[in-house]
């Protein structure tokens, strides 16, 4: 074979072998944020970016400080894997086990959106945004669990954002020395400060991913639902979202607690580590503690108890987190459409905290003219064979990740319920109303009609008067 011909064939072979890698580089979705450019991935029609810093790592001297701006970067940052979840002792029985190792360096966000069609102008139409806030009792949880993926929701025409916020003593901690250092600033609730910082980041940057910053829906479950209630009433969160969904968040967010009480818990913890309350180096010594010593064995299964508490958790600081129950009753909250409910066998049972709390708050909000859509999740995945829907079992159905949660055991009925519930949520994000073509009508809640949507045991959404309403009301009225 002539040399020229062989050289041509060799070049063609080299190009052919390199083509897949070249195509992968070319098709990686790019987004330009305020801190720099990001390269994500595309899979099954969904573009995603993971591990995006929305604030500086809260380590060293930034431990127990408000989140600071993320450092900008040059070039293109690869955003293809989840970053660390926030520091904690993982909970063995967690309904959504973490997908990454915990670390104090954890303030990262993740974004999913429908992939652009070939030849289409990227981000031509801004999409509604869903922002997920995980639960875990404010001591566990993270954005990396597979059942928290936003990919399936994004396929329905929305941008989905999840993020991490500080937990346990990293997220909720006070000490007299910290109060002196902070002065008149916001104290103690660093986890809530992270949530605010994430929502502010969304407002400034989500358009780079094709999202509409004026059409943001926050939704969270358990501690995430309580966080939504806190954000609904926080003076500092106003204007950061247009709708909210509360999954098993009870009837409030934060309760009043004297700062001195919360500070004393910090003093007690410091003393446990050999740091005296009047030590002039107390803060430096506390910030120098290894992260696992700050966790100190605490998680959902093991919380400190006794007469000298070393952890209190979220509290009403009066600036970011206020007395949510009182604020709701007095009409001092964001008047945005709200979806709210709980599972049928939730924490506290039929007449307890989650179920009764959701019912109470739905009535309070609806009574002030807010569009409210109340639900109860009674469905049990066919493989579970349990009596009643347990706490957190509605998450994979609202996020359309039931097939991820239950794997090969996922039934056709499970998938149908997952499609229906996720479609209601997406409709709510798009219009402030969950109703849409092909779905049973979900009536707006009012105390007089008392109509809720029951995601029923039989596997279909059924609207009607709350069958437990009278019993719950009677039980609440009988409480001292």
Automatic annotation (TrEMBL):
PANTHER family: CARBOXYLESTERASE
Record's keyword terms, sorted: Hydrolase, Signal
Origin species: Massilia norwichensis
Keyword Signal: yes
Family label: Belongs to the type-B carboxylesterase/lipase family.
The Carboxylesterase type B domain, residue ranges: 29-347, 353-456
Signal peptide location: 1-23
EC number: 3.1.1.-
Protein name: Carboxylic ester hydrolase
Domain of life assignment: Bacteria
Signal listed as a keyword: yes
Gene3D superfamilies listed in its UniProt record: alpha/beta hydrolase (3.40.50.1820)
Pfam families attached to this UniProt entry: COesterase
């Amino acid at each position: 074979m002539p040399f020229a011909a062989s050289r041509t064939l060799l070049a063609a072979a080299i190009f052919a072998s390199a083509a897949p890698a070249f195509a992968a580089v070319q098709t990686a979705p790019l987004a330009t944020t305020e801190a720099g450019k990001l390269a994500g991935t595309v899979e099954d029609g969904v573009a995603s970016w993971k591990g995006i810093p929305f604030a500086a790592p809260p380590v060293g001297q930034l431990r127990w400080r408000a989140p600071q701006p993320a450092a900008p970067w040059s070039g293109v940052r690869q955003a293809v894997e989840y970053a660390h979840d926030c520091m904690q002792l993982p909970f063995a029985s967690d309904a959504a086990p973490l997908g990454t190792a915990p670390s104090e360096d954890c303030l990262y966000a993740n974004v999913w959106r429908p992939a652009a069609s070939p030849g289409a102008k990227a981000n031509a139409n801004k999409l509604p945004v869903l922002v997920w806030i995980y639960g875990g009792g404010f001591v566990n949880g993270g954005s990396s669990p597979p059942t928290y993926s936003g990919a399936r929701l994004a396929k329905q025409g929305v941008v989905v954002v999840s993020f991490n916020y500080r937990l346990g003593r990293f997220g909720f901690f006070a000490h007299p020395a910290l109060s002196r250092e902070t002065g008149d600033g916001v104290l103690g609730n660093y986890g809530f400060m992270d949530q605010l910082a994430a929502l502010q980041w969304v407002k400034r940057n989500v358009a780079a991913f094709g999202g509409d910053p004026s059409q943001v829906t926050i939704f969270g479950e358990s501690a995430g639902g309580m966080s939504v209630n806190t954000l609904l009433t926080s003076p500092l969160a106003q204007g950061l979202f247009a709708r909210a969904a509360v999954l098993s968040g009870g009837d409030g967010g934060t309760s009043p607690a004297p700062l001195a009480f919360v500070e004393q818990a910090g003093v007690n913890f410091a003393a446990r580590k050999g740091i005296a309350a009047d030590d002039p180096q107390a803060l430096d010594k506390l910030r120098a503690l290894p992260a696992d010593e700050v966790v100190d064995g605490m998680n959902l299964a093991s919380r400190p108890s006794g007469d000298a508490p070393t952890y209190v958790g979220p509290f009403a600081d009066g600036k970011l987190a206020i007395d949510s129950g009182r604020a709701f009753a007095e009409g001092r909250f964001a008047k945005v459409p709200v979806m709210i409910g709980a599972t049928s066998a939730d924490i506290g049972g039929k007449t307890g905290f989650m179920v009764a709390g959701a019912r109470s708050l739905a009535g309070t909000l609806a009574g002030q003219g807010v569009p409210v859509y109340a639900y109860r999740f009674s469905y049990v995945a066919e493989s579970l064979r349990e009596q009643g829907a347990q706490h957190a079992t509605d998450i994979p159905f609202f996020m359309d990740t039931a097939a991820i949660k239950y794997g090969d055991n996922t039934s056709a009925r499970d998938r149908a319920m997952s499609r229906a519930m996720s479609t209601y949520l997406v409709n709510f994000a798009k219009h402030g109303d969950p109703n849409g073509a092909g779905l049973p009508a979900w009536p707006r809640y009012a105390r007089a009609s008392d109509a809720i949507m029951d995601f029923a045991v039989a596997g279909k959404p059924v609207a009607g008067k709350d069958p437990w309403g009278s019993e719950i009301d009677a039980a609440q009225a009988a409480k001292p």
